[in-house]
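QA checklist item 7 of 12: single-chain prediction sanity check.
[x] sequence parsed
[x] length recorded as 226
[x] structure emitted
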Amino acid sequence: MSRIVLTDIEGTTSAIDFVHRVLFPYARAALPDFVRAHADQADVAAELEAVRAETSSGASLDEVIATLIGWIDEDRKATPLKALQGKIWAEGYRLGAFTAHLYIDSYDQLRAWHRAGVPLYVYSSGSIEAQRLFFRYSVFGDLSSWFRGHFDTTSGGKREAAAYERIAAAIGAPPADILFLSDIEAELDAAKTAGLATAQICRPDTLPACAGRHPVHSGFRTILPT
């Protein structure tokens, strides 16, 4: 039996629609004013410099903002963008502008695993800060204490086997002891290559490609660590 569960968020525990319909538009609208207001703040300034390092070192603040907006529009998994989005969403959550969606079956099963002492971890392309906010301000209340750790693109791309090797090392467990849950086959392929157990979530409302290379589930209730 796998001792540990590592889960994706978008399309897995939660609806993709929430991220694209609520979170992304909120961050896109708020980003210019947020960046201008906090550009001198050390943590924000560091992310802006990271954007310049990926584009043009001499870019003005307005040019950096334009780059970030472009990255949002193309859904680019850029670490500095994800970090800034997390800071913007933090304000939105605290202001009560929205709460994070969670499927009832994922809530029920995560709660059952937590109560049974199964270590739970999250690996998402969203920043670690954004992940923590997501579960702190969920529609079911604050679930943040259920998770023992979070991983984002600083561990590597989700379609790279090396990222899962790093995560297993950080958790301190053999890869085979970790069950990774995701709706994306390419992510599961990478996790399997790294030695993790896998399960694909193929929900009727999203219908991702499900070729059967991994155990397929329509929700969390039928998932049993193996």
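[x] summary fact logged: The chain has a mean pLDDT of 93.
[ ] second reviewer sign-off
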